[in-house]
């Protein structure tokens, strides 16, 4: 009788990481559908390309690192990184831009730091920030117009050809500055009413963008409902943007209004899918609130007074830096203790 | 309705309790051999007070703790002491320990019993003595001697006595069945404990998944002031700290005991044991024990003699050996696997799960932690399991301790939900073990150092004392000598004064010599400064120095020129070196000139101006 030797607990009821990641991917589907409906095939093509490349580069680097390839590919985390990049890059971003973003995300930001669970920075955002700084033109002029504006939206093959052609043929007719970009640059010379005449804003907040953001919000709420993420980071993130906007930017003739901050750009994708990456986020509930709020504040600051119209990537990365610090000072109070033991051992009552 | 509080976190594992509650408690009977470990409690192991070959009666004390914390062991039935030897005992490590092996004679003949019809007349100390002499230690798992627990420190008045009937671990139904079938004994035992402690509140906490037990207990407490608190089913509500929180809203201080906040928890089984000890004079020789799992055909609870091997119970429950994959002693959350079924049931054992492979499958391979935080959400102690894991794995024990590693109760909720299938609790056990070892070693080395320092101090002191004694001896000797001399001189001086004049003259001579020497020294020191550099060998040395410096400067200069022509990248460095050597040459020249000048002054003073 060979009895199995195992340490407790013997019962388990866990959602494996792979399934958690699968749920994250499924929760982005509404957003991806909205992107495709309003901005054409670009995001979908980007997603497929980025996910394939992410899996490919993950496999190669795992091989180089002498790690079991299938075991790690099956955890779906590389796919999520690729997916998030595909969702956040401009629709007509050339293939090599997205390629560089994906490879630097997987190879550098994730695997060179030790692979899954060891990366201090959000891999997708490292890739995004890298190409945003390196290829500012490609990253700002390739945003698709909302398709409803435009009679002859580029078809699938045209989009595919644009993204993968060696030289980008004239796609000016299909592209348009993002609403945040437009508002930021025009509000210096025009009034809010005049700026909002621009077709990119549409009838509600920001044509197309508002639905994309609402769809990501819906997907994010599903993740909270499934208890895959907690409410702390998204609520603090969005709350901080709202507070900043109401406190400093209530004058629409000077600063972009709150609804534009919340429903244009990558706000909801960032709040529910990017900032909530558990590996690079803060740990405790209190830490998550500080972390989320920090991202929100930075997004507002950079969007309003910085050089970039959207700022999710930089803000997330800057707060990634702060995570170890936040974690040191925000442990929860343990049962049977009067207060939490903050700081590092040997200091502050360690 | 009793007011209840919630505790943080918690999980809801599949209960799997129905399998073992469908049959009443069965008698397991007398096995062929009883294995009675000498240590079934926390504290000092008991020592056998019988010899091999002795015949013992049922209930006879066969091992006793003479000094220290502990409780005696009794013979569960009559028979012969077959051996006193090392046997594998219930322990996660599978270690062996001293056991008394009793061969029952089948007569089940009782020894002397001393029941009390009215314990109130015995006095509290006598009742506590009887509880101790009945060998009762906590039957919930820890095995702390009950009589000691019932004597809290004087300044810790127990206001709330809690009887723990939560039994939150899946599979285990020993307490459930005890409350169903032995509710009166449970209540009687609790009354005895309440009489000893005089608390203002007595409450039995039972999870709401045990309606029959709740019903039976409600009936049994009628007419008493004991409350029955039905607590929501959530693992680990039966953890002492969690149950205290649920029933009182108070938290047991870290590193403390419930008595620190005026609370005491006792187990349902312990109450039964106390009742039997007091009212029937029966020591703790049996307990209710659950046999469950898919590999047994008739799972259920047994009234088991302490020392009965698990194999006998498995057979009684209809074990299908071919299906058996894992034997767990305890529940599926905190129990440990057995390497053999030849393990005795002891006072703290409550369940064995004979699991099939499908029932408790092997966990999938461990994946990296993604810090998802599921573990922190379910931790009943509000720890950060993911951080503790990180620091335990990296052997950064100081940080793990800082995050309250030692408050972990090892309930397993974190591992239960971990999506990466990390055996978190095992990492914490490892870290705790390492820290304990380090502390023990630290203590050992501290003691060694203290001993060493004490020895050094002692040696030094002895040396000093020796020195002192030597000095004293020398002093005494000198004094004796001086006295002797004085005596001698006195006798001499009386007749001889001429010598005195000679001595005076000698003294004057000495003084003159001292003065002369002093003057000579003074002239020497004033002359030293100017004469020294004027010495000839110095000029030679300086000349040598100068030639050396010049040679080096030349080499450097050529190297610099080469480097310049080749445009080598050490030009800067060489330039600096050349400059330095140039300075050195200049200095050497100056020094030489100075020396020459001084030498000249000495030989021909007229040139000095």
TrEMBL record, chain A:
Cofactor requirements of the protein: FMN
Leading EC class: translocase
EC number: 7.-.-.-
A Pfam entry, by short name: NQR2_RnfD_RnfE
Gene Ontology cellular component annotations, sorted alphabetically: plasma membrane
FMN phosphoryl threonine, modified sites: 178
Keyword Lipid metabolism (UniProt): no
GO BP terms, alphabetized: electron transport chain; transmembrane transport
Membrane topology category: Multi-pass membrane protein
Keyword Membrane listed: yes
Transmembrane segments: 20-38, 95-113, 125-144, 208-226, 233-252, 258-276, 288-305
Major location category of this protein: membrane
Compartments, record wording: Cell inner membrane
InterPro entries, per database record: NqrB/RnfD (IPR004338), RnfD_bac (IPR011303)
Signal peptide boundaries: none
Key words of the record: Cell inner membrane, Cell membrane, Electron transport, Flavoprotein, FMN, Membrane, Phosphoprotein, Translocase, Transmembrane, Transmembrane helix, Transport
Subunit structure: The complex is composed of six subunits: RnfA, RnfB, RnfC, RnfD, RnfE and RnfG.
Family: Belongs to the NqrB/RnfD family.
UniProt function note: Part of a membrane-bound complex that couples electron transfer with translocation of ions across the membrane.
HAMAP family noted in UniProt: RsxD_RnfD
Name of this chain's protein: Ion-translocating oxidoreductase complex subunit D
Primary gene name: rnfD
Automatic annotation (TrEMBL), chain B:
Transmembrane stretches, start-end: none
Protein's UniProt keywords contain Hydrolase: no
A Pfam family matched in the record: Fer4_7
Enzyme Commission designation: 7.-.-.-
Residue numbers binding [4Fe-4S] cluster 1: 369, 372, 375, 418
Record key words, sorted: 4Fe-4S, Cell inner membrane, Cell membrane, Coiled coil, Electron transport, Iron, Iron-sulfur, Membrane, Metal-binding, Repeat, Translocase, Transport
Major localization class: membrane
Signal peptide range: none
Positions in coiled-coil regions: 539-566
Segments of this protein annotated with the region Disordered: 479-499, 516-537
Enzyme's top EC category: translocase
Cofactor binding comment, as recorded: Binds 2 [4Fe-4S] clusters per subunit.
InterPro entries xref list: 4Fe4S_Fe-S-bd, 4Fe4S_Fe_S_CS, Ion_transpt_RnfC/RsxC, Nuo51_FMN-bd, Nuo51_FMN-bd_sf, RnfC_N, Soluble_ligand-bd
Subcellular localization, as worded in the UniProt entry: Cell inner membrane
Subunit structure: The complex is composed of six subunits: RnfA, RnfB, RnfC, RnfD, RnfE and RnfG.
Name recorded for this polypeptide: Ion-translocating oxidoreductase complex subunit C
Taxonomic lineage of the native organism: Bacteria, Pseudomonadati, Pseudomonadota, Gammaproteobacteria, Pseudomonadales
